Amino acid sequence: MLGFTLTPEQLDLQQKAREFAKKEILPIAWYYDEIDETPLPLIKKAYDAGLINGDIPRQYGGRGWGLIESVVMTEEFAAACPGLATSLFDNSLGLEPLLLCKNEPLKKTYLPKILNDFKLICFATSEPNMGSDVAGIRCKAERDGDDYILNGTKYWITNGGIADYMSIFATTDPDSQHEGVCAFLVDRDWEGVAIGRKIPKLGQRGSNTTGIKLKDVRVPKENVMAPPGEGFVLAMQTFSRTRPAIGAFAIGAARSAMEFAIDYAQKTPRLRY
Hints:
Layout: H1 8-35, H2 40-48, H3 67-80, H4 82-100, H5 104-116, E1 121-124, E2 140-144, E3 147-158, E4 165-171, E5 181-187, E6 193-198, E7 209-219, E8 224-226, H6 231-267
């Protein structure tokens, strides 16, 4: 029989996330939405409080949290502000291809940095002419010896303007659809990586969203997360692991809307006819 009761540890985490959302997110959410900025100090506070990067496995020094812990925290953050919750969650999205890939030396190199040095990582599949159609990627990855050279543009990238590292999906042959898709871990400071201006949005303006331009970016073989033919599966696995949190965003926002509506209804005098 399925059980939906949270463990004592998960309940403690839920309460910790709720208190953080009420104390740190809610009071500033309106301001950062208004000025269209993402508050890095807030993300740093969440990092210091141990509320991001919890899904890094224990063998790399992390907490080894699972999907339940992720959605529990995301719901609480989104109840205060879905936009800021998006940028808080994005390290989990950016990390997932690295966690799922087979490149063990790459994990041992980058996971401790992300865990211990407050490094942000974003996820980049979307492009100006395609969104979730990963098989339609046009960003080109050309083999050069053991390395790859990346050329193209990624778009609608959450935390793209503030991330230190990027999980980049590209293709060796745009006409081969999923068979050419590959994935790389790219450092923002590498030559040829350029960050575009913030993309204007109707809502969730507290979450940073940009384009990323890649011009002759050399990726060493050590930073290949998925060789050609394996990148599509890695992207699909990443989506499967992170989609439950999308539902948590909606639940958190809906819960707040319900609570505000109830409060309004209780305080508003009834009309008499």
